[in-house]
Every structure is written in C-alpha cells, then in structure tokens.
Amino acid sequence: MVQYIQVTDDENEEPIEIPSEEDGTLLLSTLAGQFPNACGLKYRNQSGGFRGIRLSDGRLHPPDNTWKACVYLVVYPKDAKQKEEDEEEDESQKLKKAEKKCSDLIVLGLPWKSTEDDLRNYFSKFGELLLVQVKRDQKTNQSKGYGFIRFGNYEDQIKCMNVRHNIDGRWCDVTIPNSNEGAHKLISRKVFIARCTEDITADDLKNYFCQFGEVVDVFIPKPFRSFAFVTFSDPDVAHSLCGEDHIVKGVSVHVSYAAPKGTDRFGEKKAQQNGQVVQKGAAGAYTQLVNHHTNWQPHKNNHQYPKPIPFPPNMPPHEMNAVSFNLFNSAMMAAAQAMLQGQAGNWAHMAPPPPQVAPPPQAGVPVSVPDTSQAAPVHVSYAPPQSSSAWGWGHHTTEPQPGSYAGWTQSNRQQQGWS
DNA sequence: GTTGAGCGTT
Predict the structure, then answer these.
(1) What does pTM read for this prediction?
(2) Whole-angstrom distance, CA of residue A234 vs CA of residue A215
(3) pLDDT reading at A409 higher than 80
(4) Protein footprint on strand B: which nucleotides are under 7 Å from a CB?
(5) Does the pLDDT of residue A294 top 90, yes or no?
(6) A204, A139 in Cβ contact below 8 A?
(7) Phi, psi at residue A340, to the nearest 5°?
C-alpha cells in the first residue's frame, strides 16, 4: 500500500510528504522530483546517528519493511572536494582517537629476578593492568631484563609514563616500544617556547599557558638560553598551540613542537641501518653527546664511548633533544666538532646563544651542518621525554608524580623548593 | 651460578 513519507533536506525546514509505491518502496525518481539530484535517504536512529536507506535498482527500501513516522533526510552526492575534506576530517578524528588509546609499554632495566607478579604488584598502583610480561630467554628462562605492560585506561598509562620507577632497587624506564610505530604521538605533550627573555619565570609561563589546559611541567634551562619547555597533560592542547606566537609578560614567544623521540630536528623519522640510527656529521656527534648524557645507569661495556664526553650542566636530556634538533648554533657545533676531534672543551664555558639576535631556526627550515661525514655512525638512544621532567636539572615548577622518586635526595628537593 | 641501553617465538 502507498505510504506518505516525510522528507526534507534541511532539518530546520518543514518536511514534505512524498508517496511510496504499492510495494512500499520509494522510487528514487519520486524523491528526485521534489529534491533534484537527490541520491538517497537517511534517518536518525535511536542513538542519534544516521542510518542510510537501502537503495536497489532505483528503489529505496523502507527500513524493517515500513516507513516510520520520522523525518527522512535527503542525501546528495558529495562533490569531490567535499568528499576530500570529509576524509581529511575522518583522518584527524582517527588520529585523535589513536592518541587517546592505550598501547603496550616497554619496561626497561628490570632486575633479573623480577617476575610478572613483581611487575603486577608494582604497576597495579597506577591502574588496571591488561598485560604483564617479562621477556625471557627461551632456553634458560632467564629474564632479559625487560618486559611489557599495558594499562586498560589511558590516563593511568600517562600517569605511569610520567614518573620514574624503582623496582627492587633498579631504576626502570617505562616507554612506548620502538616497535609501536607512530605511538610517540601519544606522548608529544611538550612544546618548545622560543624567544623567551630572562625575566620570564617558570611561573609566568605556567600562569599564562594554563589558560589552554593543565600544565604539568615547565622547564627553563639554566643558564639562561632564551627558550623553555611547557608540558601539558593533554597532547591536543600542546598540538593546538604549536606554530603560534603568544605574548607572555609583554614578550612575543614562539611555540613549536619539542622534537619527539625518534625524529630529527625537522620532525622526520631517522634513517636506520642495521637496526641502528645513523646520523652524520656534527649533528651525530652532538646526539652522541645526548646519548652519553642520558645513560644514567653507567654502562659497563663502554666501547661505544672511547673518551669521556662532557655535557652541559643543568641540561636535561629532553632539552638536549630540542637543542640538538632545533637550536643547532655555532657554539654547539664547535663543541660537537671539538668532541669529534677529541678536543672536547668545557661546556660550562660555552656562551649561550645571543638572545633575540640570532633566533633559533624554525622547524622545517634547513640549518647548514658542516660535513663531518667521517664521523662513525652512532647509536642514538634518547631519554624518554616524559620521565626527564623528573630529573634533577634545571627548574621545574611542578612536583613530579608521587611514587617512585627514591633517586631524589632531600637536598635535591630542597634546592628545587619542593619540600 | 655470569649480564645490563636490552624492543615483543604471543
């Protein structure tokens, strides 16, 4: 029997009624008679989402064999551009979703004796664990000294990654495993603040940037180097500010990405060779310096580092990442080259970059790097930026998360004004 | 019974 179906192409307009055929189907041509170029119908289901109407041989079929009393919306073909935009939107939505998803975390530096039970006992204080593994040698069943965990809740994961962990007397690192490509986006919550002046304090930065979201850390290198880092709890907030200029205490500062782990200073993923990251020239030398500095558990087989390498005092690894990738200035270049030639000088005597005179190169703008390609490939391993905020260098305004700061001495804390 | 910058036989 013929049914009249309420149809509109604008939810704010009054619908018009168009007739179905005797068999209950609605001819697309009938629909197009009222709505030229229409190619289909959709309606809202109970949960508020759209549901499409089946179209076959030019006939629209009623859902569940009857046209409901609801208003059906006309669907028009998308033009190519609109479609493209929608797809882009989908991609960014997907990305956003991915950023909030838990991933497996690798736990490095476990005591040989640690078991799954030990890990579960330790990490369950951060939240529900969906996975706990200690990797073992198949033959001997000996622990390989690392394992994997996974939380059920993203916030718990973030909390866990934000602190250092002492398990049975060993400092362990929890981070996104290398095998999990792209997951570093999960933790890019830190931005690089360029063009700071010396009178801008960590509190100034915190007070200013907290209007955009929760600020969990501010780091200002000492001695003054005209830049700072601000870490938000929400990576979306960090992303949203990147590329912008902001006025803090009357000073225009520039916000950009703090170079994430595993990328070069242009944000590109590094080339790998034999499983090792390869960099040439002074950049590599400087990165080696980063590597050395970040080995906070002394390495017995020190053959990678034939000579002691000095490092700038008061410079945490996460800063050095950004410095090596964003701020490759001549003084550092000279130091890196000197290091290559075994003439490493004293970093403490290095002049900081002249503020306001030679601003750091912007992301994406190539910086000339002298050819020192005779430099041996180095294995680059970064300190995870998320735990570096808890390290003892520089000025942090926020108290690190509780739970695992056995490495902190009382005097550390007092120096930081935190006790 | 040793070791420590190590990234996952699912």
Answers:
(1) 0.35
(2) 9
(3) no
(4) 2-9
(5) no
(6) no
(7) -55, -35
Residue, of A139 and A303, whose pLDDT is higher: A139
Work out the angle at residue A259's Cα, subtended by the Cα atoms of residues A340 and A274, and round it to the nearest 5 degrees: 55
Q: How far is the CA of A134 from the C1' of B8 (A)?
A: 10
Residue closest to B9 C1′ by Cα: A138
Please, which residues bridge with residue A174 across strands? A107
Residue positions counted in chain A: 419
pLDDT tens per residue, range A194-240? 989 999 999 999 999 999 999 988 989 888 898 999 988 888 888 88
- Calculate the angstrom distance between C1' of B6 and CA of A310: 25
Q: How far apart are the first and last CA of chain A?
A: 80
Give the nearest nucleotide to A106, CA to C1'. Answer: B7
pLDDT at A368: 32
3-state SS string over A348-413? Answer: HHCCCCCCCCCCCCCCCCCCCCCCCCCCCCCCCCCCCHHHHCCCCCCEECCCCCCCCCCCCCHHHH
- Of A377, A312, A315, A305, which is closest to residue A342 (Cα–Cα)? A305
Instruction: Quote the Cα angle for A283-A288-A174, to 5°.
Output: 115
